[in-house]
Amino acid sequence: MSQKRFRVAVIGASGYTGADLIRLALRHPDIEIAALTANAKAGKPIEEVYPHLAGYGLPPLVTNDQVDWNSIDVAFCGLPHATSAVVIKELPKSVRVVDMSADFRLRNTQTYEQWYGKHPAPELQEQAVYGLSEHYRKQIASARIVACPGCYPTAVLNLLLPVVAAGLIDATDLIIDAKSGTTGAGRSPKQLTLLAEAGEGMGPYSVASHRHSPEIEQEMSVAAGAKVTVNFTPHLIPMSRGELITSYARLTPGASVEECRVALLARYSDEPFVGPPPEGSYPQTQFVRGSNRIMLNAYADRIPGRVILIAALDNLVKGSAGQALQNFNIMCSLPETRGLEQVALFP
Q1: Which of 150, 98, 89 is nearest to 124 (CA)?
Q2: Do the beta carbons of residue 161 and residue 219 sit within 8 Å?
Q3: In this predicted model, what pLDDT tens digit does every residue of 85-109 receive, in sequence order?
Q4: Among the CATH numbers 3.30.360.10, 3.40.50.410, 3.30.300.350, 3.20.20.140, which is that of 152-315?
């Protein structure tokens, strides 16, 4: 007897994360894509919005209120913050949700409102679990709402949580230098992502004010057992997808760089998607492009008593849609790698 296929809906299917979720889900043997919503483009076939998705028999784009939600098992939500929660709170309680927005990532709604404005559905926060797959599997498995982390926190937290939890670095002295491709800004037209503006150059943005900072601090504080505030600066780099994190940290007294490496290797030794690059090389975005992998490791600094930690991932896959599908697998008691076996595209 064949296993049940889960009927899923992709809310916000016309965005980059929605499109990448569709791309991955098309090759997932246990998923039936039953509905695609995109209110502004409702009535159009998905291939008119994304020609690379033509020929797969996908349903047309519709409005949210045109979906028979009682026939849906799981909804993937790729809407912007503040919009996502409004839609999710109207769904039947029988529909489990994998949310790729920021609406349920912050456990404290007051913190959310400091960074994002009034929360549209604070009453649902208790139902939500932070969806950092490698660190919250047990909670994800039984959750109704899984709040997938942002792309930067996914890379930063997988890189730093093991060494912070082991007491190997000083969590009060962290510099996080982050760089992302332009898809991290979404598909809506913006001046900073125009080819003439973003091409042939690189620059910082949201300096000392990026909304992923409180998300990183929330999880780092749990690992450190004390309040952590990070120095986090993102940069836009002239490529479509990919993310590189370089973090500079002070070792705690008696700790070594080798212990940091061992802690990372030990923590992720059984993980299918997280691990170090080959010996003698560094994590690079082109080594993980199009895959659900994170490459990470620790390296000696020239300055005694300090360590440099580096991670790379694809911001649209492991940083968003891939991690969402990984969380879906956990929620549905499926093999975690199902639908995510893609090898990175190189060159």
Answers
A1: 89
A2: yes
A3: 999 999 999 999 999 999 999 999 9
A4: 3.30.360.10
Residue boundaries of the structural domains of the chain:
6-149+319-331, 152-315
Q: Which CATH architecture has domain 6-149+319-331?
A: 3-Layer(aba) Sandwich (3.40)
pTM above 0.70, yes or no: yes
Q: Are 339 and 329 in contact (CB under 8 A)?
A: yes
Q: Which residues contact 139 (CB under 8 A, 6 or more apart)?
A: 129, 130
Nearest to 94 by CA among 131, 148, 38, 145: 145
Q: How many residues does the structure list for the chain?
A: 347
Tokens 């020929």 sit at which residue?
55
Burial of 346 (C-beta count, 10 Å sphere; 0-12/13-18/19+): exposed
Nearest one of 185, 342, 176 to 272, comparing CA atoms = 342
Task: Give the residue from 240, 339, 239 showing the smallest Cα distance to 21.
Answer: 339
Domain 6-149+319-331 shares a fold with domain 152-315: no
Q: State the catalytic residues.
A: 151
Q: Which residues pair with 146 in a beta bridge?
A: 98, 129
β-strand 306-313 against 294-300: which pairing, if any?
antiparallel
